[in-house]
Amino acid sequence: MTNTIRAREKPVKTVRRWNAGPRLSLTLATALITATAAACFSDYGSTLEPPPSGSQTLPVLGNGQVQDRYTGEIWVQGNTAYTTTWGNRGTPGNAVKIWDVSGNVPALVDSLIIPSAVTLGDVQVSDDGQLLVVATEFNPGSIVLYRLTDPRKPQLITRYTTALTDPGVHTADVVRVNGRLYAFLCVDNSSTAAARLVIVDITDPVAPTQVFTQVMGSPYVHDTFVRDGILFTALWNDGIKIWDIGGGGRGGTPSNPIALSTLATLGGEAHNIWWYKDAGGTKRFAFVGQEGASYVGSYSTGDIHVVDVSDLAQPHEVAFYHIDGAGTHNFWVDESRGILYAAYYNGGVRALNITGDLSSCSGSERDFIGRCDLGAMGREVAHGLLDGPPVYVWGVQLAGGQLYASDMLNGIWKLSPVP
Question: For residues 148 and 160, what is the distance between their CA atoms, to the nearest angstrom?
Answer without folding.
Answer: 17
